[in-house]
Design goal:
Layout (H helix, E strand, L loop, with lengths): L15 E8 L3 H10 L4 E6 L8 E8 L2 E8 L5 H9 L2 E8 L3 H10 L11 E3 L5 E5 L12 E2 L14 E8 L5 H12 L2 E6 L10 E8 L6 E8 L6 H9 L3 E8 L3 H10 L15 H5 L6 H7 L2 E5 L2 E7 L10 E8 L9 H15 L3
Parallel strand pairs: 1-4, 5-7, 9-12, 13-16
Antiparallel strand pairs: 1-5, 2-3, 2-8, 3-4, 6-7, 9-13, 10-11, 11-12, 14-15, 15-16
């Protein structure tokens, strides 16, 4: 008779972002884009040469960030179905914890639904899942993978350090449901919320709540549409992605000016900021270390809370569908998410929507 597994107390505060797995149409080409444009380095590979028959996966790394890019090798199957519906997108947001099995048992006992056929994985909004992993320090280059050195021209790292937060877009009136899910299953707490009075322009609006674990190592903003005169960015995302999913990933840097310059040199497209945004920036945010003329030239946004200030900028979508994009963020003590920048940001996004005919 098999002995029962030992009971280990779950502590959501131990969770940290481990990696994101993206299901994409062509993993090899996607990996080369992340290497040449975003400064990642090639790390690991798995495919037919390692015993996989249905998929190929490439791992790229920068700082503490790990991205697993996976595509199917045969017609049909879940990866192709996911790509056909969503385009390239985040399939798994993986958390590392000292006891992955204990974390999995806890969240399932509190309402999370396991993913059939996958160990230690549960469903969240849309077709997105969370996977729990452990890292022993002796796992090798990547468990089940072999070391990989891409022949693509590798640019220098651009200064991306770690995942700061990961934002999900959900459907009409679904935000509170998913916030309760994280509170009940993961023991997360609501950090802050924004309603359509906070996040709106002349034309569009949305609502958002930020869920986080006790230590703040995991932060998960959840957005839903709100009624406005025209279609919001959340509605455009839901239509283009085919449902709920990860809208953007915020990545920390300790020198946003250098990071933005490197991204621009590599050809990464970034959102522009209305010139008027900088006219009274000093009065709004107070003294900062960075030169405002430089921030204006680079379209970098600034916001302040009672803990300090932060700088941020957003890429345009990383694929043809207007879905997944990156945020680059540098925090100088601030814990906020750029509330003071919402209007300028969404005006820029609306201009891009209008160019696509989706506003």
């Amino acid at each position: 008779m098999t002995a029962p597994l030992p009971v280990v107390a779950y502590d959501g505060g131990t969770l940290r972002f481990d990696h994101l797995e993206l299901w994409v149409g062509n993993a090899k080409q996607a990996a080369e884009y992340y290497i040449t444009a975003l400064g990642f380095r090639p790390l690991a590979y798995a495919g037919p040469e390692t015993g996989l028959t249905d998929r190929a996966s490439y791992v790229v790394a920068q700082g503490a960030i790990r991205l697993v890019l996976t595509s199917a090798l045969r017609p049909g199957g879940p990866i192709n179905d996911h790509v056909a519906r969503h385009g390239d997108g985040v399939r798994s947001v993986a958390f590392v914890t000292p006891d992955a099995a204990a974390a999995f048992r806890h969240v399932v006992a509190h309402g999370a639904v396991p993913v059939p056929g996958l160990a230690l994985a549960v469903r969240t909004y849309g077709d997105t899942i969370h996977t729990f992993v452990e890292r022993s320090g002796t796992d090798g280059v990547w468990p089940g993978f072999v070391a990989w050195d891409s022949p693509a021209h590798a640019n220098a790292p651009v200064g991306l350090l770690a995942i700061d937060h990961c934002v999900g877009n959900v459907g009409w009136d679904e935000m509170d449901h998913w916030c309760r899910f994280y509170a009940e299953a993961f023991d997360f707490q609501e950090l802050i919320s924004f309603d359509d009075r906070d996040i709106s322009t002349e034309y569009t609006a949305l609502r958002s709540k930020v869920m986080r674990n006790a230590t703040g190592t995991i932060k998960l903003p959840i957005n839903e549409p709100a009624h406005g005169r025209k279609r919001s960015q959340i509605e455009e995302y839901l239509d283009s992605y085919g449902g709920a999913g990860v809208q953007h990933v915020a990545i920390a840097t300790d020198d946003i000016v250098a990071t933005v310059r490197a991204l621009q040199a590599n050809g990464v497209e970034l959102l522009a900021t209305p010139a008027s945004y900088y006219d009274d920036l000093s009065a709004r945010v107070g003294e900062i270390d960075e030169d405002i003329a430089t921030l204006r030239d680079l379209n970098i946004l600034v916001d302040r809370d009672d803990q300090g200030y932060m700088l941020q900028i957003f890429t345009k979508p990383l694929q043809d569908r207007p879905t997944l994009f990156f945020e680059i963020i540098q925090r100088h003590g601030a814990l906020s998410f750029g509330k003071g920048n919402f209007k300028a940001l969404f005006v820029s996004i609306e201009k891009e929507q209008a160019r696509r005919g989706n506003l």
